[in-house]
Design brief:
single chain, alpha+beta, 5-stranded antiparallel beta sheet, 52% helix
């Protein structure tokens, strides 16, 4: 009997018989908690502070531009003895709206045409004014297609894709000098400053149009890919699938 008990006691234990004590999660140290609190506060207040700073800078910049044209008698700080931000922006808005109303009339159009004739006779001012006028008319035109379409183009090497903004097709003079017929103007902004980049003409067959808004693409570029457009993974998957399909069609023999 004793021998049998000894034999049973020497048998190895199964994994079910082994009891592993539960390991309690280690509480974060005071410095780690303090760091987490600081980062959380930074995430909450950072965007608000930057937005408020940029808005305040724009309002004060417009006020500083408009203030010299307002007589001292009509300035609010003359009577209230403290600065009121935004009144210059309001006056600028009213003045531009009134100027647009006058320009829409026959008399206003006549005055604008007379002023343009004078500017067109100035050698240095003429190209600057003409370029700025075309840019503003294109950007604020309701029928224009400037920067309303986001697309992918294979750049800087095969298999690598970059976001571009599509604008107007090239003019007839430019199209006549390029091989093929269907080209489109593309602007590829840089990260994180989208105001700089590369402009080029690309065949329409070599681009992939995306179901992205310009605002979403700007957010994606400025954040260097950290902020995806609306967190929509379906759009990202569709974009990757379109790029792979385009690459496969090029690699396959004709």
């Amino acid at each position: 009997m004793t021998e049998k008990m000894t034999t049973d006691s020497q048998q190895p234990l199964s994994p079910a018989d082994i009891i592993v004590p539960a390991v309690e999660p280690e509480e974060p140290r005071p410095m780690a908690r303090l760091r987490n609190y600081f980062l959380t506060g930074l995430v909450v207040t950072g965007p608000v502070a930057i937005t408020a700073y940029l808005t305040w800078s724009f309002v004060t910049w417009v006020d500083d531009l408009v203030r010299p044209f307002i007589p001292t008698v009509y300035r609010p700080e003359t009577y209230l003895h403290f600065y009121i931000p935004g009144y210059g922006l309001i006056i600028a808005f009213i003045a531009l709206t009134f100027l647009g109303f006058l320009t829409a009339n026959l008399v206003g159009r006549t005055l604008v045409e007379f002023g343009e004739k004078i500017l067109h006779r100035m050698p240095i001012v003429r190209p600057i004014y003409k370029t700025m006028k075309q840019i503003f008319e294109t950007l604020f035109s309701k029928s224009g297609s400037s920067f309303r379409t986001v697309a992918l183009v294979e750049f800087p090497s095969p298999g690598m894709w970059s976001l571009v903004f599509l604008s107007q097709p090239p003019s007839a003079d430019v199209s006549a000098k390029m091989p093929g017929t269907d080209y489109v103007s593309a602007f590829m902004p840089c990260t994180p400053n989208p105001t700089t980049g590369f402009f080029f003409y690309v065949p329409r067959k070599d681009i992939i149009e995306l179901d992205f808004t310009v605002e979403s693409a700007m957010t994606l570029l400025m954040s260097a890919g950290m902020v995806q457009p609306n967190g929509d993974q379906k759009k990202l998957a569709a974009m990757a699938a379109a790029a792979q399909a385009a690459q496969a069609s090029r690699a396959s023999p004709v």
